[in-house]
């Protein structure tokens, strides 16, 4: 996915020290050059900072370190050893009303940023402020909450720009949503125009230059690239109203967002479209009570083809648009809940002639794989 995105000349963002190692691999493979803009987000451990500085010394001069707290600047300068640095500041947002806390732990409080700039950055010859960054976790949506945080960040950008000529970039974090049900309707073009128009109007009114606009569309970029296909291995009529389809893996292990935060995915039968349909609940094969997917949690009817008793072909179910986070959270090849193996991963792509090609990227995890991880020697 990264290799494909890089063909469109995108810039890159890192979140931890291991991301720097990945960038060095991409550079050795000729997929990125040293002119690429690289934003360094996340909490800065000493190891992370050291790798960022090392990357800059190798010639990656368009590297911007986004400060997540005021304390990071002194640690960064100490490890930089006099190296001139481009920095950004992340603004801590106020969370949505239903959140468990009021202000994000990420970033620096909105009311402290101007004073922090004047005290620690303005007269420092080793740092140059280039970017203001804010991130709305629920994404870029046409809501009063989003526009409120956006306007607050834009006003702060204008105030900082008047004090800091080097500031020239605004990073709108959060990203666009992806289609998670068949009735999904989102006007991407309208939102983009509104964002750009708002920035243009305020900067013109305040007589400051418009910023370069950055954003991080991780989920939007990759979410719709993935699907997970299960086989129904048994149907169970547990009472007069509840029909269960038991699948050949664990929902908790393979699509953890559905289990942990009740994320919706597009669910469709792969075959048997002409059969009679019934309302069903889907259950995984783990021993956990929470290993299920049904209409009560997801506020939508789950209607799937009914499997007839005389049918020999099994029913297959597909969860679509699972390309963001599911593999990252559940991992591949480790020890999963109830020792259920990681499933086979298949890549479907197009070749240079536009023809579909597919290959097995990872085989299903074996007993030997698991025993080796647990410290047993395979017999």
Describe the protein's topology:
Blueprint: H1 2-6, E1 12-14, H2 17-28, E2 38-40, H3 46-57, E3 63-67, H4 71-80, E4 85-92, E5 108-109, H5 113-121, E6 127-135, H6 144-163, E7 169-173, H7 188-206, E8 212-215, H8 218-222, E9 227-237, E10 243-247, H9 251-254, H10 256-260, E11 266-269, E12 277-279, E13 281-283, E14 292-293, H11 295-298, E15 303-305, E16 316-320, H12 326-330, E17 345-350, E18 356-362, H13 367-373
Parallel strand pairs: 1-2, 2-3, 3-4, 4-5, 4-6, 6-7, 7-8, 10-13
Antiparallel strand pairs: 9-10, 9-16, 11-16, 12-15, 13-14, 17-18
Helix pairs in contact: 2-3, 3-4, 6-7
Give a short synopsis of this structure.
By secondary structure, the chain is an alpha/beta fold. The chain contains 13 helices and 18 strands. The strands form 4 sheets. Strands 1, 2, 3, 4, 5, 6, 7 and 8 form an 8-stranded parallel beta sheet that branches. It has a 6-stranded mixed beta sheet with strand order 11-16-9-10-13-14.
CATH uppermost class of the largest domain:
Alpha Beta
Counted beta strands: 18
Q: Which stretches of 5+ consecutive residues score pLDDT under 50?
A: none
CATH superfamily of the largest domain: Alanine racemase
Rounded to an integer in angstroms, the radius of gyration calculated over CA atoms is 25 Å
Classify the beta-strand content into a percent band. 15-25%
**How many angstroms does the end-to-end distance come to?**
38 Å
How many domains make up the coordinates?
2
Averaged pLDDT, please? Answer: 91
Give the oligomeric state of the chains in this entry, treating copies of one chain as homo and distinct chains as hetero: single chain
> Percent of residues in helical segments?
25-40%
* Sheet with most strands: 8 strands, parallel
CATH topology assignment of the largest domain: TIM Barrel
**What coarse outline follows from CA principal-axis ratios?**
globular
Number of helices: 13
The helix/strand class is alpha/beta
CATH-defined architecture of the largest domain = Alpha-Beta Barrel
């Amino acid at each position: 996915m990264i290799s494909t995105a890089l063909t469109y000349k995108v810039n890159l963002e890192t979140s931890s020290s291991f991301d720097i190692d990945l960038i060095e691999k991409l550079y050795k493979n000729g997929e990125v050059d040293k002119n690429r803009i690289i934003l360094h987000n996340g909490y800065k451990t000493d190891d992370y900072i050291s790798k960022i500085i090392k990357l800059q010394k190798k010639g990656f001069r368009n590297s911007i370190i986004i400060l997540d707290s005021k304390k990071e600047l002194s640690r960064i300068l100490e490890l930089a050893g006099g190296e001139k640095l481009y920095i950004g500041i992340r603004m801590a947002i106020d969370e949505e009303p239903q959140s468990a806390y009021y202000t994000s732990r990420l970033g620096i409080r909105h009311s402290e940023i101007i004073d922090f700039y004047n005290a620690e950055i303005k007269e420092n010859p080793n740092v140059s402020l280039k970017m203001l960054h804010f991130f709305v976790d629920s994404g870029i949506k046409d809501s009063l909450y989003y526009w409120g945080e956006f306007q607050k960040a834009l006003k702060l950008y204008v105030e900082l720009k008047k004090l800091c000529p080097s500031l020239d970039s605004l990073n709108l974090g959060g990203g666009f949503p992806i289609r998670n049900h068949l009735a999904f309707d989102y006007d991407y073009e309208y939102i983009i125009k509104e964002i750009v128009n708002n920035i243009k109007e305020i900067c013109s009114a305040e007589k400051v230059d418009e910023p370069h606009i950055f954003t991080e569309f991780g989920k939007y970029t990759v979410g719709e690239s993935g699907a997970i296909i299960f086989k129904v291995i048994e149907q169970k009529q547990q009472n007069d109203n509840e029909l269960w389809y038991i699948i050949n893996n664990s929902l908790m292990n393979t699509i953890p967002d559905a289990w942990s935060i009740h994320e919706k995915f597009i669910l469709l039968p792969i075959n048997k479209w002409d059969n009679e349909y019934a309302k069903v609940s889907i259950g995984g094969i783990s021993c956990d009570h929470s290993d299920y997917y049904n209409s009560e949690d997801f506020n939508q009817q789950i209607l799937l083809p009914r499997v007839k008793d005389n049918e020999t072909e099994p029913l297959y179910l597909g969860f679509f648009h699972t390309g963001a986070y599911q593999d990252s959270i559940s991992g591949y090849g480790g020890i999963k809940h109830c020792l259920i193996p990681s499933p086979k991963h298949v890549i479907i792509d197009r070749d240079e002639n536009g023809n579909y090609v597919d290959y097995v990227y990872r085989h299903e995890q074996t007993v030997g794989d698991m025993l080796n991880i647990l410290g047993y020697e395979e017999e």
